[in-house]
């Protein structure tokens, strides 16, 4: 009876988590859309726009270790609700400023920093809490629904933002975001974060571990988990090499191919649709049996797709055909990202001890956040010097080479010992 009640509560968590994520992601992206346009209209300066991006990225990199320590040391429910309340208050403060004295860049930058910090605490803690909220058999479904929420927001928020911007004042955007944040607080307050948790209880009088000692313990734990280290190295290489695609795609389509803005927006929409459809598929199918093997194949596909972006630079195409080609490429890329991310996330959720989840996800967040801007800066420099097609092709070959080395057959067998069985070959298509 107790087990049945726990499963019912887990089902409630599954949908509450999804709805909360959808509402908060949608609100955040509509707000980001409006603020980006507002800054560019107010200043006409790319530097001011870039400064707002830095105010988002830099605090995430610096604060992630603190968030990981807090997630492993204190009540995860308290951290998430406190972070959500702080986000609501930050937007409320910006709303008051906009109504009393008008928006200024300082007020926007300050709010961006606060929102970046709160979202880091909330994101790392939520990632650490999945196995405490959901039963083990539905972790893949939870990860897929999470990605589905993000995809819905990615598809819908630019459309809503574009329709509203210019027709309603900025305070309306802020009120929308505040409302979304308040609903998120309410939904999260009804969740039991200890339902399936396996955290050790902290005994009174037990010597407290400092944050530095805690992070060292997290790194020591990682060193003892070779498969986990492989997953993290793969994730880091992907984040860095993804800079070739992030910078190159827009540069090629807008500067080289002279694609009109409407068509460019549609190709980016195809990316979100690809993510959405694959997320829906993974929520309905059984859990992937060999997640690292599936992710490996997905990354090999991702490398091939990245290289394929360069093909219209090598082979001339009619404009309409080129538009259709890039829409298909982006759809495939969005679908492939889900094939890579979801199995890896499920595997990490199951492999990492509950007591170390916060620190491990924080280490991953810190390193990823540091590598992504670095990749964008380096590739931005390279695209000014070398032909775009060769940068993409070489980067895709490096990505394929890295995954073939890091996820070589011996590593596959360590992660999935069944693959060492003569009856199971890595070349098989794994399905259930």
Describe, in plain words, how this protein is organized in 3D.
The chain has helices at 2-43, 46-73, 76-100, 105-133, 139-164, 170-189, 211-223, 226-256, 261-284, 291-308, 311-314, 319-351, 357-385, 388-406, 409-415. With 432 residues, the protein is mainly α. It folds into two domains: 2-196, MFS general substrate transporter like domains (Growth Hormone, Chain: A); 221-420, MFS general substrate transporter like domains (Growth Hormone, Chain: A), CATH 1.20.1250. Helix 10 (291-308) packs antiparallel against helix 14. The longest helix has 42 residues, at 2-43. It is globular. Mean pLDDT is 82; it is low at 426-432.
What is the ordering of alpha helices and beta strands?
HHHHHHHHHHHHHHH
Number of DSSP-assigned strands: 0
User: CATH superfamily of the largest domain, called what?
Assistant: MFS general substrate transporter like domains
| Helix content bin | over 70%
- CATH class category label of the largest domain: Mainly Alpha
Specify the biggest β-sheet.
none
Mean pLDDT: 82
Structural class: mainly alpha
Break the fold down into its secondary structure elements and pairings.
Layout: H1 2-43, H2 46-73, H3 76-100, H4 105-133, H5 139-164, H6 170-189, H7 211-223, H8 226-256, H9 261-284, H10 291-308, H11 311-314, H12 319-351, H13 357-385, H14 388-406, H15 409-415
Helix pairs in contact: 1-2, 1-5, 1-6, 2-4, 2-13, 3-4, 3-6, 4-13, 5-9, 5-12, 8-13, 8-14, 9-12, 10-12, 10-14
